[in-house]
DoxX family protein
Amino acid sequence: MITIRNEKHLRNGLVLLRLFIGWHFLYEGIIKLYNPDWTSFGYLASAQGPFRPLFVAITNDSLIGIADWLNVMALIFVGITLVLGIWEKWGALVGMFLLALYYLAHPSFPWVTQLNVEGSYWFVNKNLIELMACFVLYQVPTGQFFGLSGILKKNKEITKTELS
C-alpha cells in the first residue's frame, strides 16, 4: 500500500496541475477564437500516421469550419471547467479526447517525419504527457478542495441543514 506523507501537499500540487492545464486550454481556445485568420487546416492537412486520411478529409470546405468551431469551443470548455474547478471530470475527459486527436494527427513515431510540431520525440510528446495529466485529474477531481465544486457543495450542505 502506498502511504502519502503529506496529503495537503499532494492535494495542492494537483490543484496547481489542474489550474495550469486549464489555463493552457483556455488560453489556446481564446487566442483561436479572437484570431479571425486561425484555422486548423494546416495542422490537419499535414497530418501523418495511420489516421491521416481521416484528418485530411476534415479539411474539406464543408467540414473545416465546423471542426475549427468545435475545437475552439472544446478548448474553452476544458479551460473553464479546470480553472474554475467545476465539472472538472467532464473537462478532463474532453481534454483527453482533444489531446488524443492532436496526438493521432501527428504521432511522434520515430519512423514518421515530424511536420507542424514542436520538436521531434520518440513515441511520447507534449500532447501525450498532458493527456496523462488530464487522466490523473479525472481520477482525483480537486474542485472540492479549491474550486466552484467545493463552494457549491458547501452551499448545498448549508441549505439542507437550514431546511432540516
The mean pLDDT is 88. The chain has one domain: 7-163. The radius of gyration is 19 Å.
